[in-house]
Every structure is written in structure tokens, then in C-alpha cells.
Amino acid sequence: MRTIIKGNIIHAPQLGELSIIPGGCLVLEDGAIAAVCDAMPPARPGDQIEDYGDCLLLQSFADLHLHAPQFPLLGMGMDLPLLEWLDTYTFPMEAYFADTGYARRAYRRLAGTLLSLGTTRVCMFSSVHREATLVLMEELEQAGVAGYVGKVDMDRNCPDALRETDGIASTRRWLADCAGRFSHIRPILTPRFTPACSDGLLQDLGALAAETGLPVQSHLSENPAEVAWVRELHPDCEQYWESYAKYGLWNGRTAMAHCVYSDRRERQAMGDAGVLAVHCPDSNTSLSSGIAPVRRMLEEGVKVALGSDIAGGAELAMNRVAAGAIRASKLLALSDPDHPAFLTVLEAYYLATTAGHQFFGAGAGFAVGDKLHAIVVDDSALPPVPRPLTLPERLERALYLMGPSDIRAVYSEGRKVSA
Amino acid sequence: MRTIIKGNIIHAPQLGELSIIPGGCLVLEDGAIAAVCDAMPPARPGDQIEDYGDCLLLQSFADLHLHAPQFPLLGMGMDLPLLEWLDTYTFPMEAYFADTGYARRAYRRLAGTLLSLGTTRVCMFSSVHREATLVLMEELEQAGVAGYVGKVDMDRNCPDALRETDGIASTRRWLADCAGRFSHIRPILTPRFTPACSDGLLQDLGALAAETGLPVQSHLSENPAEVAWVRELHPDCEQYWESYAKYGLWNGRTAMAHCVYSDRRERQAMGDAGVLAVHCPDSNTSLSSGIAPVRRMLEEGVKVALGSDIAGGAELAMNRVAAGAIRASKLLALSDPDHPAFLTVLEAYYLATTAGHQFFGAGAGFAVGDKLHAIVVDDSALPPVPRPLTLPERLERALYLMGPSDIRAVYSEGRKVSA
Fold first, then answer.
1. Do B314 and A401 touch (CB under 8 A)?
2. Minimal Cα–Cα distance from A341 to chain B, Å?
């Protein structure tokens, strides 16, 4: 049976390029895109038609870096720098997730909030807690959010309550618990970051990555103090990334958050290995980390997507994160002659959608064969304009202004998950 | 008759200093603050009690620079630099306000939106249109927004449809039309900016300012191209500000938006004259203007308040503008050794409230004798936190996250204007 979804289609198959079909149709078969058309296809018996009239039919957002247990901290402690903020706010909050009852309440709320904001795919850190991580996966799966969730591994430079004492045994048990339980949520190996992981732990995680083929996520070159710390901890590594690479945690299925201080050599290593750089502009600004060299990365062929990085970032809404990436890039362009061109609206839309979805194996834009990930935006409640707007203008306005009340429907993995 | 408003009072009498009264009371007599108490005062017959329980009782916001006729443009054209954006988006949009019917619809919506976001005082640009400006004043007054509105004056370097051809005659007529009609909205003289005003027009406006004692608002040193242009137009002026000062438009009742490129000498001139610098961080970022030297201004004793500058800025909500000021200051601190200290949450709250309200003659924080300007924030729908939050933490979270649905009541000029 087919579903035909009608609206003003705007998708981003390429960086900086929009594909626009006014009054177009997405034809779905079993939730997968069978065709993207500029007119209603000839009717077949049983067709289900969802006509959204003059609404925008956009790609949904993919959030490639966020910390689920930090959701309750959103918008707090922003005047502290990274390492102090971790000790004062983050670690104490994560310790609460030993309580699976609390975890369920917080994660149910998070899953619903993500969908209400149009985010349908995530690459997410949980905490070190095996059970709370399963709860998180259950809540995301049940709500309809897809993607990767990682039980965090760390065994040093952290509070006792959050320290792994059994190496990766609990991670292996978590992977066993996950097996066959979820359709849209998959595990990802998640060393917190080099300073919080002993060499032995990184080595074991690398071996596990090789054994299982699982993807890997971590943090990279977020802050100068952190970069210097890694250099002390790994004197054999010329650069931060090598502390992951030497243990087999650096390949085409790796996502590294931040990369603010990744210079040409580190970026080259990312490009060569196919590592995804996850740009988290609000977090990097709010924790006074800096502005990542996104324009350079894109020019050098490094893959880049966007992350909210809550709660280092105070914005969970990826349209606001995309607008934040534009803003940060404008300020970088003003202060750094090496970055003359800021990120345009079209580029930011691509980074917040296609670039992120591709980490999960999706194609470019609304690609035939992909399960649909889309949002329907009804922008009629935005300020009234006395002339017709073009579809690119409406896309820009939606990126800057829209909130949950402007999102009329959300599709994830081919299913309508909220109305 | 007294009204007693109970809640967790947080106000900012001084830059960087909060005055906090958990479960405190604001006692109003005829809308004016008679006392700020830490407990319920002895009852009097007829007392009206408004108990907001555990809600936050905060100062409302003052938006010291925004363009009312640009409200429909919110979030559009942000990839253009200032002068190009004016020609492509701003001027054509302002021309629509020759139609007073359209103006009434747009301005009614704007007034309601301002209150829904907790902004109760504005220092606002209208367009050149006399009638639409009166409509704007009526709509603000009727909704309960207080402050200053200026009919724009410009007679060069603008489209014919927006060019004044009769000098300040229509401005004098507008002032005559205003007289005695409004209780909470007052006129302000508003030369658009030096490049758009002939010398004769600036001279006449200066004379009118001297004659009437009215306040003055304009733009200053927003963008390097604009600064260079003013230098060409006024070769006798060493700096931009002198093009206002030489015509008597530079004094303690003057508000100048932006001041991004105001160097020490220009800042000294502001401090000496008591001119208010209106910092518009979102606009300055979005139009790639730069970041104003706010920390330096504050250290040098220049008065600073905040403005949304819609639609150069894409955020009308002043809590978001305040958070944007923090973000911009963090990036400036990272790139400019002359600005080592970013703006803290407490400082941003002060700048968005007390610093702005004082331009209208208000005192510091919730000052006895002032008509109440306040908002009641119910933050219980924000993410659930498993420990009690301190009131400064709740203030921070509200600044970063709150939206209209978290604002339970708004008081303007001593009256409850929305519930």
C-alpha cells in the first residue's frame, strides 16, 4: 500500500544546493520513498493521501551529538568553562541515572521533546549506567526516534560513582542485552573522551569495535586545556586524534564531536579515515571553547554534521542549532581571514539534515529507497507578510523561527510519529 | 487599594548583582511599588493578593532598539550584509506601511507578541509614515506596551516612496497629533541614520529636539562600510558621532543603536554626554557587522542596554537576546585580548531589564515609587531536575529557555496586561 504525501518539498541533496518542488508529492511504499514527484501520480486502489496543502515538507533533523542524561541541565551553568562545568554540573547530574525510575521519566520526556522539535535521528551519549542506557533506548524506540545510543565508558578522572571498575564487561553485557530488542535504535561504542579512559580501556574498546563492527563516538579537540591534557597523557601521540587511532577507534564509522582545535593535519586525518566531525556551535560558544573551522573542513572534504551537544549547548532544537552555526560562522568570518565565507542558510540546512542522516546510511536528500525522515512545517502562524514568500525564504524563516507549534507532522523511519 | 504580588523575587538593582527574595512580596499602590518585602505585610481591608506560589517574579524586559515595520521580515534575508539587506528587504517592506489597514494588523500582532515574550517597554522605530506611526502607538498603548515610538525621518539615499520631501513638517504634524493622546507611549525623534538624512534635516531635527526636549534615537557605527560612508558625507567630522553632535542630537536623552565600531574616543563622547549605547548582539552577528565592545563600555562608564533590532536580529524575545549577548561576548573574549571577561548571566539580566528601563526614567531593579514592570515565570514545564534548583540557577535557565508558554503573567505600568 502506498502513502502519498503532498506539500512544498524542499530537500538538500548536496551542500549548498536545494531541490525544491512546489506542490510536490513524496510517494512511500512501506515507509520507503518510492518516488519524489512534481505532481500527483496516477491513482492506485488503496492509496492513502496526506495532503498538507501549502505547508513545507522538509527533511527532519539529525542531531549527531547530545548527552541524554544532561537534558535536565539544559540552560544551566553556562558561565563555567568545559572542565569545571563537567565537575560541577555534568558528573553529579549523570550520577542520578543510577536510578532507572528517574531515568525513564527523564528519557520519556526527552524522546517526546526531540520529536516535537523535528529531530528524528540521534547519535547520543547515555551515561555509564547499563540499565539506564537500555531504558533510554526503549524510550527512544517507543517514541519513534531512530539512531545510535552509547553507554558511556570511562574509568579515570571522573567521580567514583561514574567510574567503570570492570573494564568493558558491563559494555559487553549491555550489547548482549540490546541484541534483537530494537528496530530503529542501535548501540554505538562510546569512550567518553581520552582523559577519562585508561589506555587499557581504549584498547579493549578498539578490540570490541574490530570484533563487532560497531560505530564509535567520542569527543575531539574541544578546548585548549583538554588538548594539552591529552598531550600529557599520551606523549607518544603528536595530536589528540592519534590517541583514538592507535587503539582502532578511528575509521569511517566514527563520529567525533567538536573538532574546534583540529588543525590541518588533524583534519587531514579525519578526511583520510572518513571520520565525521560533529560541529556543536552552541556548546562551543556557551562553554567558551571557540568556533570550529567548518568552512575549511568542508573545503578539504571532511564530513561535517551538526550536534546540539545538550547540555553544553542550551538549544535542543536543531533548527536553532543550524541558525547558531550560521551565526558562529559569521563571527568567525569577521575575525579570521582563513574563513572568509560564512555558512549560508542552504548549507546549514544540509548540515542539519542530509549530512547527519548519511551517518546512519541514508542517501542524499529525499532519496529513493530510504525510509522517510521528514517534517511538515505549517508556517502560517509566523508573522504575516504582505507579499508572497519564495520557498527558500520560507525555509530560512522556518530555520530561524519555528518551534514545536509550527511543526504539524513528523515522519521517522517511514512512519508518522507525531501529528 | 493595595495589590500584593507574591513569588520568588529576583531583580537586578546593579550590574552583576542580584537581589533575591524567596517567597517575597511586591506591594503595589495604584500600580506603583510601595514596598519590596520578604514576607506578607500586615493585612489591610481591600488588599488584593496575587499569590504566584513558587513562580519566579522577575523584572520585565526593555527592548531599546527595534524596527516595528520590519516585524514581518523576521528571520529572512539574513545572509545579506547591512546595506544590501536594507535595499533588498527592509525598504521595500517599510513601503507597505503606507497602508494603515495593513499597519494596524501587523502592529496589533507585534504588540501582543511583545507582551507574550515579557517585553513591556520599547524604544522603537516606526517607518516614515505619519499615520502608520500613530496606528503603531495606538496598538502598543491599547495592548499595554509602554515606551517611545519614533516616526522615522529620512530624505536621501532611500527609495522615493520612503523619502521625506517636506523636511520635518510631517514630523511636526505627527507630534501635534500625538499630543495628549497616549498615557504610556511617547514620541521620540528618529533620524534614520546619518547617510539617510541631509544636513538640513539633521539641523531641523536638532532644533526640534532643543525646542521640545524630546529624546532622540538613531544608529551609530554599526558596520565599517557605513562608518566610511559617514566620513565621506561629513568630512568635517572626525568620527560618526560628531555628525549627530554637531546638530544637537547627542545628549543624555539619546539612544544610539549598535556602536560596534565605537573606539575609545567615540565611547568617551558617549560617556561624557550620557548617551545610551544599545547593544543588539543578534543583529550585529546576523548582518555580519561584528561584536560591540560592551565590556569596555561598561568599564568606562558608558550606559548600555539591549535591543532586539528586529529584523536585523531574528529574535524578538529579549531573554534570547540577553543569552545572545552572553554568547557574543564569549566569542569576543576568545578572539580579542582587550575583552577578557564575557558577560555573565547576572550582567545580561541587568542589561535586558534595569539598564533599559532606566532610559524611561525608572529606578534600579524593583524600585519603590516606580510603576511595576514585571513578569511571572512558571518554570515548572522546563526539563525536570532531580534536585532543588537555586534561584540564580532558575533565573539562568529561564533566560536561556523560556518562551511565551512559561510566562504566566505580565505587568506593565503597574497593570496586569496579560494572564
1. yes
2. 11
Tell me how close the Cα of A374 comes to any Cα of chain B, in angstroms: 22
Query: Given this model, what pLDDT does residue A419 score?
Result: 61
Q: What is the pLDDT of residues A374-407, one digit of tens each?
A: 999 999 999 989 999 999 999 999 999 999 999 9
In chain B, which residues have their Cβ closer than 8 Å to the Cβ of A389?
A: 76
The pTM for the full model equals 0.97
Q: How many residues are recorded in chain A?
A: 419
| CA B174 – CA B134 distance, rounded (Å) | 8
Under CATH, which number does the domain A61-352 receive? 3.20.20.140
**Dist CA A270 CA A264 (whole Å):** 10
Nearest CB to A333 within list B110, B288, B399: B288
DSSP result, B137-184: HHHHHHHT-EEEEE-EE--SSS-GGG--SSTTHHHHHHHHHHTTT-SS
Indicate the SS3 state at residue B90: helix
Backbone angles phi, psi at B165, to 5 degrees: -115, -5
Strand partners, A24: A7
Please name the member of B96, B334, B383 whose beta carbon is closest to the beta carbon of A72.
B383
Contact yes or no for B348/B326 (Cβ under 8 A): yes
A1 confidence band (pLDDT: 50, 70, 90): confident
Query: Grid coordinates standing for B103?
Result: 499597519
Cβ–Cβ below 8 Å for A314 and B96: no
- Cβ–Cβ of A291/B330 closer than 8 Å? no
> Is there a contact between A397 and B328 if contact means CB atoms under 8 Å apart?
no
Residue intervals in chain A for CATH 3.20.20.140? 61-352
DSSP-derived secondary structure for A235-279:
TT-SSHHHHHHTTT--STTEEEEE-TT--HHHHHHHHHHTPEEEE
Q: Is A116 helix (H, G, I), strand (E, B) or coil?
A: helix
**How far apart are the C-alpha atoms of A224 and A239, rounded to whole Å?**
12
Q: C-alpha B42: how far from its chain's center?
A: 37
Residue A180's CB is within 10 A of a number of other CB atoms, namely 6
Please state, in angstroms and rounded to a whole number, the distance separating the CA atoms of residues B101 and B119. 25
Specify whether the CB–CB gap between A74 and A315 falls below 8 A. Answer: no
Output phi, psi for B225, to 5 deg. Answer: -65, -35
* Residue range(s) in chain A whose domain bears CATH number 2.30.40.10: 2-60+363-418
Q: Which residues pair with A257 in a beta bridge?
A: A219, A278
A–B interface: beta-carbon pairs under 8 A: 133
Secondary structure letter of residue A189 according to DSSP: B
Please give the single-letter amino acid code of residue A259: C
Chain segment A2-48, per-residue pLDDT in tens: 999 999 999 999 999 999 999 999 999 999 999 999 999 999 999 99
Q: How far is B74 from chain A (nearest CA, A)?
A: 7
**What is the average per-residue pLDDT within B221-226?**
95
pLDDT at B419 over 70: no
- Picking from B389, A372, B305, B415, the residue whose alpha carbon sits closest to that of residue B398 is B389
Q: Tell me the C-alpha distance between B35 and B399, whole Å.
A: 26
Q: Does domain B2-60+363-418 have CATH number 3.40.1190.20?
A: no
pLDDT band at A84 (very low <50, low <70, confident <90, very high): confident
Supply the ipTM of this predicted assembly: 0.96
